[in-house]
Design a protein that fits this description.
By secondary structure, the chain is α/β, with parallel strands linked by helices. The chain is built from ten helices and ten strands. Helix 4 packs parallel to helix 6. The radius of gyration is 16 Å and the shape is globular.
Length: 231
């Protein structure tokens, strides 16, 4: 395995002006792109096709946002975020192993099978997690799981909830998690709201939390909420 560049260089040298690649240009991806752009980062939104419309969900993404295909995005960016559908993410990202080598991959997705109403009905990887599968498929990449336990609008506006939400972190590399912690703070997350659970195997706990979401949505609609830790 080739030696990995230390992720702390992103935090110390490039944190304010990092090039962040986001794979997935739907509501989650464009929402993250807008906020990271506002924070001063350069963002590349990776689209599946050059004609994919990315403006409808947000009305625009910001002055520092450019667009590319997903392979170019993964190759060009310093830090990459997986905001693609979790049920197909493993094959998609495994094909980008060369482009993602030596980089931090932030996985914010959930791998689920749909119920009859289109909401998550079951886990794709019971007893494991998408994050663990990604780390196994991408051994030269630092995978960090976070932001998958809330509706997408809370990812970039945690302060809008009446109760402080929690952003959980799972990953094998401590420096990579520190880098991601810095990026979370750019999204508005206070240090007390960020909970490091441990290595990548802990992602199976937060990914399983998705199973509580469908009943809440069916009862209350898409009102912003997060599955959080209360102390």
């Amino acid at each position: 395995m080739p030696a990995l560049p230390h992720p702390t260089r992103y935090r110390k040298e490039h944190h304010r002006m990092a090039t962040i690649g986001i794979l997935g240009a739907g509501r989650v991806g464009t929402n993250l792109a807008s906020k990271f752009s506002e924070a001063g980062h350069h963002v590349i939104l990776g689209r599946r096709s050059p004609t994919e419309d990315t403006t409808a969900a947000t009305g625009g993404t910001g002055p520092r946002v450019s667009f590319a295909d997903q392979r170019t995005t993964a190759r060009t960016a310093e830090i990459v975020i997986n905001a693609t559908p979790g049920d197909s993410a493993l094959d998609r990202l495994a094909s980008l192993r060369t482009e993602l080598a030596g980089k931090i991959l932030i996985d914010v997705s959930n791998a689920t099978l749909d119920a009859a109403d289109g909401l998550p009905g079951a886990l794709c990887y019971p007893g494991s997690s998408l994050a663990e599968k990604l780390q196994a498929a991408l051994p030269d990449t630092h995978v960090v799981k976070t932001l998958n336990t809330m509706l997408f609008m809370v990812m970039t506006a945690p302060e809008t909830l009446a109760t402080p939400p929690t952003a959980y972190l799972s990953g094998n590399d401590e420096h990579a998690k520190k880098t991601v912690t810095g990026l979370l703070r750019d999204l508005g997350w206070q240090p007390a709201w960020i909970e490091d659970l441990g290595d990548i195997t802990t992602a199976r706990a937060t990914e399983a939390m998705i199973l509580v979401v469908p009943p809440i949505l069916r009862r209350h609609g898409f009102e912003p909420f997060a599955v959080s830790l209360a102390r």
